[in-house]
Amino acid sequence: MSSVAAAAQGAGKGAAKAAARRRARRQKRHGESAVRRPGWITYTVLGIALVISAFPLYYTLLLGSSDQVTISQEVLPQLLPDASIFERFADVMGNSQVNFWLALANSVIISVTISVATVLTSTLAGFSFAKLRYPGRNALLVFVIATMAVPTQLGVIPMYILMSEIGWVGKIQAVIVPALVSAFGVFWMTQYLDSALPFELIEAARVDGASMFRTFWSIALPAARPAAAMLGLFIFVMQWTMFFWPSIVLGSQNPTLPIAVQNLTAGYHDDYSLIMAGVFLVTLPLLIIFAVIGRQLVAGIMQGAVKG
Amino acid sequence: MAALTTTEPETGSAPPAARPPRKLGFSQTLSRWDVKVSPYLYISPFFILFALTGLFPLAYTAVVSVYEWNLLGGQGDFVGLQNYVDVLNQPTFWKSLVNTFSIFLLSAVPQVIIAITLAALLDQNLRNATFWRMGVLVPYVVAPIAVSLIFGRLFADQFGLINGFLGVLGLDPVGWHSDRFASHIAIATMVNYRWTGYNTLIFLAAMQAVPRDLYEAATIDGAGRVRQFFSVTVPQIRATIIFVVITASIGGLQIFDEVKLYDVYGQGGSDRQWMTTVLFLYEVAWGNQRDLGRAAAVAWILFLIILVIGFINFRFSTKIASSGTKAPKVSRAVTRRLLAEARAAGEESAARRGVQQSTTTTDRSDS
C-alpha cells in the first residue's frame, strides 16, 4: 500500500506543476476575468469517482493481507493492509503451478517486443502515408482506417489452426507475431506526422542526397518521438493486460501474467486471499508504470481522442 | 503534391549543369527506384501482416465453419451449413446472445452518461487537473481478468462487500451470481469500471476543443451552466459520442475476459446465466465440445451481427453528423492546443513547427 500512496503523492506533485502551467496558459488565453474556480460539489463528485477507481484495488490488498478462513466469514476483514501481504506475495511467486517468474518474463518480452515493433512499423507506414505521394495512397489509407472496425478477435479459430500447423502453440511468438502491426498505430502516426513533420525538412534531406530510408530514419523518426512514445505506451498496456488470445494459444504451461492469475484460480479456488494477493501482484507493475508516466497516458488518450 | 517529385531531379550527385541527352548513372537509377518503391515498401509490413493474421483468419473462419473440424482430429468432411444449424439449435447459443446484448446495453448506456458528466466536471478550471485526470484513469491499467476476479469477490453472493453494504442499509442480499439479471449488472459494472475513465478523457478532450466563445455567447444570452451543457457542449461533442458508442459496441459484443473469471469455473455460471457469445465460442472450441467447425460458425454469426450493428451505427451517425457539427474547426483548435502544450514542455523544434504548420496545410490542400 505504502508504495502506491507514495507514488500517488509523487504524481500529485508533478501534476500540480503541470496544472499550474495549464492555469497560467488558460489565463493568458481568456484574460483574467473569465477564470472561475469550480465549487466544492465538483470536487466532491470527482473525489467519489476517485475512491471508486481506487477502492477495488485497495480491497484486493485487504483480502490479500487477510487469510482464507477470515474472509470466508467476514465481509471486511480489516481496514488496513498489513505485512502479511508480503508472505502471500512470496507464496504466489514461489508457487510451481502459477509459474510467476516465467509469466513475468513472458509478459515483459511480449509487451516490449510488440510495443517497439509496432511503433516502428506504424511510424514507417505513417511516414509513407503522411508525407509521400504515390498512386493508391488515399485508398490504402482508407482501407487501414476501415480495418480498425474489423473484429479480428473472431478469427481465433483459423489462427489457432495455423499456429498448430506451424508448431507455435505454447510458444510466445504465436502471441508476438500477429501483433507486430496495428491499424490504430498506423492511423495515429499518420495523423501526427502529417502535422508535425514539415515537407521542407524532407526536401532538404533529399537535396542533401539522403535515401528514402535515411530520410525516414534521421528526419521522420526523431520528429515522431512524442507520438511514438504515447503509442508505445498504449500498446504496452494493451499487451500487458491481454488475455483472450494468449490464454488460447499459450495455455497454462507457458503463461503470461494474466494467465498466471487464471492458473492461481484453477489450483486454489477456495483460497481467495491468495488469489487476491496474486491479482494485486500482477497489477502492481502497471500501477508503478502508471504512477511514473500516467500523465503521458492521459495526454495520449486525449490527443488520440480528437484525432481518432 | 510537389514535395518529392520536384526534388527528384536534384537527387544523386549529378552536376547541376544542363546536359540533356545523358545516360543515368547507377546511383540515379537506384535513387529513382528508391522514390518509386519505398512508399509501398514502408506500408507493406502492415498490409502483409494484417492480411495474414487479420483478414485471412476471418475469411477462413467461413471455410472452417462448413467442415467437420475437431480440435484434435483436424479437418473432416464437408458438412455444408450443418454447423450453423447445430449452433442455431443450441439454446445456450441464444442464451449467450441475449446475455451479451443485455450486458452490452447495461454497460454502454450508463458508461457514456457517467463519462460525459465526469468530463464536464473535469472541463473546469480545476486545481491539480492532471491529478484528477490520472485518478479516473487508474482502472484502465488493471487487466480485465484481474477486474473479473476482484469484482467476482465484491459481488459475491455470500460475504461479498456489496451484499454486506446492502445488509447495513437493511436491504436483502442480491444473488449477484445466481440471478441472471443481477449477474449482468455486476459484469456491466466491471466493464464500466475499466472503461468509464478512459472515455471520460476522450470526452474531455472533445469538450476542450469546443470554442470558448460559444460559451461566452451563451452566457450573454442568459444560459445557465446546465443549459450550456445541454445546448452547447453536448451538440458540439456529438461526433465524439458517436465514436465512443461505436467502439463500445464493437468491443462490448466480444466481451470475454470479464466473464471468464467472474466465478472460478469460468463457464458462465451454473445455468450459463452470464455466458457471453465469445465465451460460448471458447467453450465450443476449447471446452467440452472441441468442435472447431461449430465454433467457427459461432464466430461467423457473431461477425455478421457486429457488421450489421456497425452498419446501423454508421448510417445513424452520418445522419446525425450531417446535421451540422464543426468538425474541422474543432480539430484545428486542438492541434493548436497540443502545439502549445508541446512548446510548454520545452520541445526543441516546436516553435518552428508552429510556423510550418500553416505551410503544410496549404501543401495538403493542393495535393
UniProtKB/TrEMBL annotation, chain A:
The keyword Metal-binding does not apply. Residues 7-18 have a biased composition (Low complexity). Residues 19-29 have a biased composition (Basic residues). Coiled coil: none annotated. It comes from the Bacteria. It is a multi-pass membrane protein. Its main location: membrane. Keywords: Cell membrane, Membrane, Transmembrane, Transmembrane helix, Transport. Residues 7-31 are annotated as: Disordered. It holds the Pfam family BPD_transp_1. It is found in: Cell membrane. Gene3D superfamilies: MetI-like. This is Carbohydrate ABC transporter permease. It comes from Myceligenerans salitolerans.
TrEMBL record, chain B:
Residues 1-24, 343-367 are annotated as: Disordered. CDD domains: TM_PBP2 (cd06261). Keywords: Cell membrane, Membrane, Transmembrane, Transmembrane helix, Transport. Its main location: membrane. Residues 352-367 have a biased composition (Low complexity). InterPro entries: ABC_transporter_permease, MetI-like, MetI-like_sf. The keyword Cell membrane applies. Residues 97-313 form the ABC transmembrane type-1 domain. It is found in: Cell membrane. It comes from the Bacteria. SUPFAM superfamilies: MetI-like. It holds the Pfam family BPD_transp_1. The chain crosses the membrane at residues 40-63, 101-122, 134-152, 237-256, 297-316. Residues 1-10 have a biased composition (Polar residues). It is a multi-pass membrane protein. Belongs to the binding-protein-dependent transport system permease family. PANTHER family: ABC TRANSPORTER PERMEASE PROTEIN (PTHR30193), INNER MEMBRANE ABC TRANSPORTER PERMEASE PROTEIN YCJO (PTHR30193:SF37). This is Sugar ABC transporter permease. It comes from Myceligenerans salitolerans.
